[in-house]
Amino acid sequence: MKLTRRKFNLSAAALTCMISAAPLFAQAEDKVTLRLSTPASETDQRSVALAGVFGPAVSGFANYEPHYNASLIAQGSELEAIANGDLEMSIASAQELATFFPEFSIFTAGYVHQSAEHQVAVFNDAVMDPFKKKVEDELGVKLLAVMYLGKRHVNLRFPRSERDVKTPADLAGVNLRMPGSDAWQFLGRALGANPTPMAFTEVYTALQTGSVDGQDNPLPTVVDAKFYEVTKQIALTQHLVDLNYVAFSKAVWDKLSEEQQATVLKAATDAAEAGRQAQLKKEEDLVAFLKEKGLDLYEPDLAAFRSHVQAEYLASDLAAAWPEGVLDRINELGE
Ligand code: KDO
Q1: Could you tell me whether strands 233-249 and 141-156 are parallel, antiparallel, or unpaired per DSSP bridges?
Q2: Taking the CB of the first residue and of the last residue of the chain, which one, N or C, has fewer CB atoms within 10 A?
Q3: Which helix (H) or strand (E) holds 292?
Q4: Which domains, and CATH codes, for the chain?
Q5: Distance between CA atoms of 66 and 42, rounded to whole angstroms?
């Protein structure tokens, strides 16, 4: 029966009458709740994109429920929570995945990814398939999309007049906060510093009290987390063009219809693209903002940093876990 406007009006009137005269109908088929936990703030561009693009796109059959500032699950424990059925989504890092699957450290290595576009090319290339399959089969997590976190730089609480960072040697003795997992600690050492493991939500206070000398994050994070209030300089090392993955519970995925799965995948991809463009624009705009706030932003000897960091990785146990040919393929995709 084709629903014409007249029939629609009658039906609507009839429905209104029925509802008002009888107990409320049972809610439409229950929607699946998609809890996301992230250490990021609500105003971080990845959070904004997921809430603004992903949530609405899946709202026909799912309730997107974000939890910010690691308020639901501690940073670094999200993947295990998803595997255990205590969480449905996270903004995962390759460093966290490397604690389960050492080969993921190839995506954490300094100066490997060259740009946001390079990250997308790698994530969508066949080279990524075995990595994605292993995470699904062994952890019960589906990696839906790659998100651009930004170019990480060294951000110190001392003025440049006290510590001028030209080469890795200039970071000797610097107590540099890095996130907890081993791959992050390795990166801190490869930069020439003494890394201190610490959760993201503790970094501002640690910088303010001087319990660490500095931290590394992209400019949008330095602004969003207000690290610029408690630091004096940023050596633009761009030592890691950093990424995250939209991680999704495989158990929930398997209960969705094919159409719903396609909607979830497109929603995550579209949200990642929206967040990527917003983050790239912020990286451009925030240099001036940070200089106005009195920070000294400058370029160190990038060739010295790049050659030192890459040599550290190639000589490392991390590189021993990298499957044959993967680094060559990643480099090809970045040309
Ligand atoms: C951080 O703790 O410095 C880090 O940048 C690591 C990333 O992998 C990611 O967890 C990020 O924090 C959070 O999303 C907060 O921006």
Answers
A1: antiparallel
A2: N
A3: helix 258-292
A4: 5-149+242-281 (3.40.190.170), 152-241+283-333 (3.40.190.170)
A5: 9
Predicted model pTM: 0.91
CA distance 120 to 272: 10
Q: Which residues are CB-contacts of 115 (< 8 A; sequence separation ≥ 6)?
A: 241, 334
**In the predicted structure, residue 289 carries a pLDDT above the cut 80:** yes
State the Cα–Cα distance between residues 27 and 31, nearest whole angstrom.
10
Q: Is the CB of 44 under 6 A from ligand 1?
A: yes
Q: Measured between alpha carbons, how far is 50 from 159 in angstroms, rounded to an integer?
A: 36
How far does the centroid of ligand 1 lie from the alpha carbon of residue 27, in Å?
A: 38
Pairing of strands 32-37, 62-67: parallel
175, β-bridge pairs:
194
Cα–ligand 1 centroid distance for 91 (angstroms)? 9
Distance 69 CA to ligand 1 centre (A): 10
Q: Pocket of ligand 1, candidates 42, 46, 93: which has the most ligand atoms within 8 Å of its Cβ, to mutate? A: 93
- Please count the CA atoms within 13 angstroms of the CA of 261 that sit on its side-chain side: 12
Q: Is residue 12 pLDDT above 90, yes or no? A: no
pLDDT at 10: 45
Q: Which of 223, 229, 224 is nearest to 205 (CA)?
A: 229
Strands (E) in the chain, as ranges, are 32-37, 62-67, 89-92, 141-156, 175-178, 194-197, 214-217, 233-249, 296-298
Q: 92 with 245: CB under 8 angstroms?
A: yes
As a whole number of angstroms, the distance between CA 280 and CA 149 comes to 9
Using one digit for the tens of pLDDT, what is the confidence trace for 310-332?
999 999 999 999 999 999 999 99
For residue 36, give the nearest of 69, 58, 64 by alpha carbon: 64
